[in-house]
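#data-curation
PF: Archiving a pair of folding outputs for the training set. Convention for this channel: one message per protein, sequence first, structure tokens after, nothing in between. First:
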Amino acid sequence: MSYKMVRGLPKLAAFHRQLISSPTSRSIQTMAFTELVTPAIKQDEASKNFFMTTLAPMLGSIISSAPGLKHNVSGRVIFEDNSDVGSELKPAVGIEWEKEDNLYALLAGEDFKAFGGQAKSYFTRPPQPELYKTDISPVAAFSSAATEVFRIKIEDETKIEKAQQAWESLIATIRKTTPEIEALSGPSLNLKEPLFVGIIGWKGVDARNTALDLPEAAKSKNDLESLDGVTSFIAQFAH
């Protein structure tokens, strides 16, 4: 992925202007640069072992020494689109950067290119770093016992407000009974097909299930998931 490929796209520029100008959006002063990566590892034992013993430590070293890094966590996806995938190796990485350009500098660096060359034969598809401009820092959500991520495809500008309203309705409903959740959201910055992300930090999977089993919260979640192009996962990050 080159720097020029992900910058200056008219569709993205219009998307960001619309979202930030929305009356329900938060002050841009509080926004953070939040990255998510969920690489698809081949599930044969040799590939999984090589990822855990070689690739994961190599990537961790590259990220931890990257300029502009504010926070990073790694872990595993345990649920994907409401299905239990805990028996599979599905890595997840969460990062907060000081600024947008920090990610592009990392991707253009020689260390990351060397990692990519060594890792590509162990992935079922090329990993896609997803950078979002979120309303608050992701640190609290990433530090929670379970981190749930909803990604909503924004095919045109008319869907921006619907996505944001559905997300804010879900969070407001959950907070009536579970005020201790951590929540953040925002638009993608580097994806050719823009996404809106919503992230919830839960005290655990059981707490999450209890909250979302309540009728009002279940309806709000269904309303969100009824939007076109919604995917989700729950990760547990090492702390």
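PF: Second:
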Amino acid sequence: MTNRESTILSSPTAEPTIPLNIIVIGGSIAGVASAYALQKAGHDVLVIEQTDGKYRSNGGLRAPPNMTKILHQWGLEPVLAQRARRCDKFVFRSGDSGDMIASMLMGEDFLRDVAADFMFIQHGDLYDMLYDLASKEGVAFRFDSTVKEVDSDSMLVKLETGDELVADIIVGADGIKSVVRPCVDDEDYSSSKERESFFAFTVPGEVMEKDEDLRPLLKTADWNVWLGDGYLFHGNPSGSGNNYCVALAYRFDENSPPDTTSQWIDPPSLDQTNLNPNRFATRLRKLVKAGRPAYARLDTPRRPLDSLVCDNGRIVLVGEAAHPLLPVGHYGMALGIEDAHTLGLLLSQVRSRDQVSQLLIAYEDIRQPRCSTVHEMDYDSRTMFVCPPGPVQQQRDSTLREAMAVEDLDHMDEATFKAIWGDELALLAYDATDTVEDWWTKWGSMLKRQSISGNMVNEFSGQGNGVSVMPNVAVMVSQRDSPERSMG
């Protein structure tokens, strides 16, 4: 992080003048991370979670550098060293034949540019780390509590038990079917008739060891991506290296599954679905057959939300409630951690209640461009990865081979590196702390000197003239070309 004088982090442990009562709805990873960041900022935080909080998924996660650097700033680097594993290589393979298309080592130049490691970790391990952090910081948790209604005018959270809780700020971290989101934006953001099913499963290490085709996958710290016609596999060793974590995205035609979003805590086995394993390479069929289900979901692509904060500036969205990306990619979880960190840093500076709405508007102005860019790039990449055989697929494979021809980013000339990897590098090198610092450098002194009036809210957010005058502090990258768009 760049050193600056009089920045928002110059006294990171300073208590805000006005501690706020904050309710986080949803004990997801993004919810627990937000609760920790806000409690650390000096507020009183309660997390409301509808489950008993005991479930831990054994599904695998990929923590890209933009996420890893935040976890390090939260003091988790020693724990990550024990429970996560650094990715050494990206490998793209054909899902039909299993043949390698291209590969790329994570060399020192790449790691220096993104300033952190790309890591593998299991979902349950990451949740435990964040839950421990939040609990030690003083976050309160209320499990087995289902939210029935959220009233943005009275700031009441009504539970199914009949209890009513009041808050200064409500954070919606309740996922794809968010109860909170309608308070912020009640439009239907389903953008197409496309339907995809998602399965995360784990193959025990002892099974991998006994099979000569699978054993090499467990022995290397590679992120393998198999690209097929209408489907996509991700595979990598677990953080401990004892098991192999696999995620599958499988695209249906528009008439196959029901027009809904469903999620299963106890997912069906893959042989209970209508997947056709004969489409997969031999190694993939073995992984599917040996896999122990961890997570399953039926979903549809959605376009980015127009708003992340409600009209009265007191309810805010984070995680999947804010940016409902399709699962299986590695951006969604990272965005949720970025949301939490950004929100905590901004609200660490509350000195009067009048500033709350402005700081939440700042959160939206910072996060909205970033999330929309990632959302569209993620969708474009997914579309390209699952394209059918033909000229587009051939061009995709040719581009991947060109991008990875030198096997190591350290030996690629700078011009080629930027041309091929510039977009991806910009996403991975994003620094949420520096972004808040940029905002605070421009607007923080004004917040300190003056009370927030309605006119000043308009001055900050641009709502007075319809054009934002705030700096474009998100890392913006050019959108990749794709053969077809259906995001609307």
